[in-house]
C-alpha cells in the first residue's frame, strides 16, 4: 500500500469528551468547606426571635416557595421557547438546560447576597431550608411533567443524593451555629462571628466567581448571544418576580430583598447533575452551557444593586455629620448644637421676656 493512499471513504459518527480534570473536584470541595463556614456564621448571626415569628406566620416562606417553584419553572420554560424555538436536537438540549435551571431550589449564595444587600437574613435562611426540603418533591414533579415535553426520548434521573447532600450541608453547620448562639447569647464569640459574617460572605462569593469561572472555562466556547441573554434574563426575572410578589403582600424592604434574591439565586448544581446523568456525553456537557451561564451572570444585577446601596450609604454617612442629631436641621456656624430654627424661637421668647406659659406677659402686651 502506498503512503497517503485512500483505502475507504464514508461518514463516521464521532464524539469528543472532556478531559478529566481534578481541578473541578478540588473546586467542589473547597467551595463546600467555605460555604459550610458561612452557614455556621449565619447560625451564629440570625435572630432566633425573628425566626420564631416567621415560623408562626410564614407568609414570607410561602411567597418565596410560590415564586421559586411556580413562577421560575414557568418563566424558564417560556424563556427557553422564546430563545430556542427550533426543533433540532441542539435547540431542545438548550431548552432543557434552561428549564432544569429554573426548577432548582435556592442556592447558598442567596443567603450571602441577602446579607450583603441588607435583606432579612433570618427569612432568607428559613426560605433556603424550606425550599431545599420542598425540592425533593417539586424538582421531580416539574422535571417528569414538562421535561418529556422538551425531550421525549430522555430518561431523566433525579439526583436525590445531591439534594440530600445540599440539605445536610445547610442544616448541620447552621444548626451548630444556632445551638452555640442559644448556649452563649451575647458572648464575645457570637459578636466575633457577627463581625466576620460580611467578610466571609464576600470572600466566598469572590471565590465562587473567580475559581469557578476558571474551572469551567470550556463553557465559554459554547456561548452565543442567546446564552448571554438567557444568562442575564432568567435571574433578573426571578429577582423582579420575587420582589413584586413580596411587595404585594406588604412586606418591609428587608424581606422584599430576601424574597427577591432567594427567587433569583438558585442552586444550578442540581441542574448540572441532572443533565450529566440524563443526557449522554458530550451532549450533557453541551447542555450545561446554560446553567454555567446562570452561575456566571446571576451575580451581575446583585453587584449593581450592592454598588448602589454602598454608594448611598457612603453618601448618607458623609453628609449626616452636617445635620443636628436632635433636630435634623443644619447647624448655625459659630453656634455648636444650635439650629437656625431653635435660634429664632429663642429670640422670640426673649422679646416677650418670659416663656409662652407666662399669661401676665401676654396680657401686658395686649394692653
From TrEMBL:
<feature type="transmembrane region" description="Helical">
    <location>
        <begin position="63"/>
        <end position="84"/>
    </location>
</feature>
<feature type="transmembrane region" description="Helical">
    <location>
        <begin position="96"/>
        <end position="117"/>
    </location>
</feature>
<feature type="transmembrane region" description="Helical">
    <location>
        <begin position="157"/>
        <end position="180"/>
    </location>
</feature>
<feature type="region of interest" description="Disordered">
    <location>
        <begin position="322"/>
        <end position="367"/>
    </location>
</feature>
<dbReference type="Pfam" id="PF01758">
    <property type="entry name" value="SBF"/>
</dbReference>
<feature type="transmembrane region" description="Helical">
    <location>
        <begin position="286"/>
        <end position="308"/>
    </location>
</feature>
<comment type="similarity">
    <text>Belongs to the bile acid:sodium symporter (BASS) (TC 2.A.28) family.</text>
</comment>
<dbReference type="InterPro" id="IPR004710">
    <property type="entry name" value="Bilac:Na_transpt"/>
</dbReference>
<dbReference type="InterPro" id="IPR038770">
    <property type="entry name" value="Na+/solute_symporter_sf"/>
</dbReference>
<feature type="transmembrane region" description="Helical">
    <location>
        <begin position="200"/>
        <end position="219"/>
    </location>
</feature>
<feature type="transmembrane region" description="Helical">
    <location>
        <begin position="24"/>
        <end position="42"/>
    </location>
</feature>
<feature type="transmembrane region" description="Helical">
    <location>
        <begin position="256"/>
        <end position="280"/>
    </location>
</feature>
<feature type="compositionally biased region" description="Basic and acidic residues">
    <location>
        <begin position="345"/>
        <end position="354"/>
    </location>
</feature>
<feature type="transmembrane region" description="Helical">
    <location>
        <begin position="225"/>
        <end position="249"/>
    </location>
</feature>
<keyword id="KW-0813">Transport</keyword>
<dbReference type="GO" id="GO:0016020">
    <property type="term" value="C:membrane"/>
</dbReference>
<dbReference type="InterPro" id="IPR002657">
    <property type="entry name" value="BilAc:Na_symport/Acr3"/>
</dbReference>
<keyword id="KW-0472">Membrane</keyword>
<keyword id="KW-0812">Transmembrane</keyword>
<dbReference type="GO" id="GO:0015293">
    <property type="term" value="F:symporter activity"/>
</dbReference>
<protein>
    <recommendedName>
        <fullName>Ileal sodium/bile acid cotransporter</fullName>
    </recommendedName>
</protein>
<feature type="transmembrane region" description="Helical">
    <location>
        <begin position="129"/>
        <end position="151"/>
    </location>
</feature>
<keyword id="KW-1133">Transmembrane helix</keyword>
<keyword id="KW-0769">Symport</keyword>
Amino acid at each position: 500500500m502506498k503512503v497517503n493512499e485512500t483505502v475507504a471513504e464514508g461518514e463516521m459518527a464521532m464524539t469528543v469528551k472532556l478531559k478529566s480534570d481534578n481541578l473541578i473536584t478540588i473546586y467542589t470541595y473547597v467551595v463546600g468547606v467555605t460555604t459550610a463556614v458561612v452557614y455556621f456564621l449565619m447560625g451564629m448571626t440570625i435572630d432566633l426571635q425573628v425566626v420564631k415569628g416567621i415560623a408562626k406566620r410564614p407568609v414570607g416562606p410561602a411567597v418565596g416557595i410560590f415564586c421559586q417553584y411556580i413562577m421560575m419553572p414557568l418563566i424558564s420554560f417560556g424563556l427557553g421557547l422564546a430563545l430556542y424555538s427550533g426543533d433540532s436536537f441542539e435547540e431542545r438540549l438548550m431548552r432543557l438546560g434552561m428549564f432544569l435551571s429554573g426548577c432548582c431550589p435556592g442556592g447558598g449564595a442567596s443567603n450571602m447576597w441577602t446579607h450583603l444587600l441588607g435583606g432579612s437574613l433570618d427569612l432568607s435562611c428559613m426560605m433556603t431550608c424550606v425550599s431545599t426540603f420542598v425540592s425533593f418533591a417539586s424538582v421531580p414533579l416539574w422535571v417528569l411533567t414538562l421535561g418529556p415535553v422538551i425531550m421525549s426520548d430522555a430518561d431523566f434521573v433525579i439526583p436525590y443524593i445531591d439534594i440530600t447532600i445540599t440539605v445536610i450541608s445547610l442544616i448541620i453547620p447552621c444548626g451548630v451555629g444556632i445551638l452555640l448562639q442559644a448556649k452563649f447569647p451575647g458572648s464575645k464569640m457570637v459578636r466575633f462571628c457577627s463581625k466576620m459574617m460580611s467578610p466571609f460572605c464576600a470572600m466566598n462569593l469572590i471565590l465562587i466567581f473567580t475559581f469557578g469561572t476558571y474551572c469551567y472555562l470550556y463553557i465559554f466556547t459554547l456561548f452565543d448571544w442567546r446564552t448571554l441573554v438567557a444568562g442575564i434574563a432568567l435571574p433578573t426575572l426571578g429577582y423582579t418576580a420575587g420582589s413584586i410578589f413580596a411587595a404585594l403582600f406588604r412586606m418591609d424592604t428587608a424581606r422584599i430583598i430576601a424574597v427577591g434574591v432567594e427567587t433569583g439565586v438558585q442552586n444550578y448544581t442540581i441542574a448540572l447533575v441532572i443533565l450529566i446523568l440524563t443526557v449522554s456525553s458530550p451532549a450533557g456537557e453541551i447542555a450545561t452551557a446554560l446553567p454555567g451561564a446562570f452561575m456566571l451572570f446571576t451575580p451581575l444585577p446583585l453587584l449593581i444593586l450592592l454598588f448602589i446601596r454602598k454608594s448611598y450609604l457612603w453618601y448618607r454617612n458623609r453628609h449626616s455629620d452636617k445635620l443636628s442629631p436632635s433636630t435634623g436641621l443644619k447647624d448655625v456656624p459659630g453656634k455648636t448644637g444650635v439650629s437656625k430654627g431653635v435660634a429664632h424661637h429663642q429670640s422670640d421668647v426673649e422679646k416677650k421676656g418670659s416663656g409662652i406659659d407666662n399669661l401676665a406677659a401676654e396680657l401686658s402686651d395686649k394692653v
